[in-house]
Amino acid sequence: MAAGRPGRVKSLLEGFGYTKPDYALKRRLMALMLLHQASDLNSHICIEGWQERADDLVELQELIWAE
User: Fold this and answer.
1) How confident is the model over 17-55, as pLDDT tens digits?
2) How many domains does the chain divide into?
3) Which keywords label this protein (predicted)?
């Protein structure tokens, strides 16, 4: 929904009552994103060069769910 864009991520999470996402929340959101039947990272992540910026899933979760 937020495509990894920091302003959208912040607004989305604030809308659900989160002021600052912790590691556990980011981990759950990442798992949901990967497991969803319509998940397509290449079309849903709108961060320039994200494939080169994240070497593993933890780095990807921190990139997508930035604070």
Assistant:
1) 988 888 998 899 889 888 988 788 888 888 889 899 999
2) 1
3) Kinase, Transferase
First CA to last CA across the chain, in angstroms?
A: 16
Burial 22-47 (b: 16+ CB within 10 A, else e): eeeebeebbeebeeeeeeeeeeebeb
Q: Is the dihedral of CA 49, 55, 59, 61 positive or negative?
A: positive
* Domain-located, residue 35: yes
Residue 63 pLDDT class (50, 70, 90 cuts): confident
